[in-house]
Design brief:
Number of strands: 3
Radius of gyration: 15 Å
Protein name: Transcriptional regulator
InterPro entries: ArsR-like_HTH (IPR011991), HTH_ArsR_DNA-bd_dom (IPR001845), HTH_MetalResp_TranReg (IPR051081), WH-like_DNA-bd_sf (IPR036388), WH_DNA-bd_sf (IPR036390)
CATH architecture: Orthogonal Bundle
Shape: globular
Pfam family, one: HTH_5
Structural class: alpha+beta
Number of helices: 5
Helix content: 25-40%
Keywords: DNA-binding, Transcription, Transcription regulation
Oligomer: single chain
Number of domains: 1
Strand order of the largest sheet: 1-3-2
CATH superfamily: Winged helix-like DNA-binding domain superfamily/Winged helix DNA-binding domain
Largest sheet: 3 strands, antiparallel
Length: about 110
């Protein structure tokens, strides 16, 4: 039987979708929600791997926030990893821009999204 180490996480590792496997409809659908756009914008303004899921100021509960991150992972926009008790995030800007050139630029500069 494997021995549990102190502080080890019981969460399953998040599943990530390669942006190359994402359709334009999936990408647009992920970017159509104001909460997800807010998450993307905050990640774009943050250093990589510095934002934990709980550090975002969004008007949703934990379950809804988890769902929004799942949608963003499924669209190839966000990568997550566990660091101790926190799950930290990275915007997959380069990879997503290679698949959908200019799309994130439009979303990040649009003023009428929220």
């Amino acid at each position: 039987m494997a021995k549990q180490t102190a502080g080890a996480s019981h969460r399953a590792a998040p599943v990530h979708t390669d942006p190359e496997d994402v359709s334009v409809l999936t990408a647009l659908s992920a970017l159509a929600d104001p909460v997800r756009i807010r998450l993307i914008r905050e990640l774009a303004d943050s250093a990589v791997w510095t934002r934990s899921c709980g550090s975002f100021d969004v008007p949703v509960g934990k379950a809804a926030l988890s769902h929004h991150f799942s949608v963003l992972r499924g669209a190839g926009l966000v990568e997550q990893r566990d660091e101790g008790p926190k799950r930290v995030n990275r915007l997959r800007r380069e990879e997503f821009d290679a698949r959908f050139p200019g799309l994130l630029d439009l979303v990040l500069r649009a003023d009428d999204v929220e």
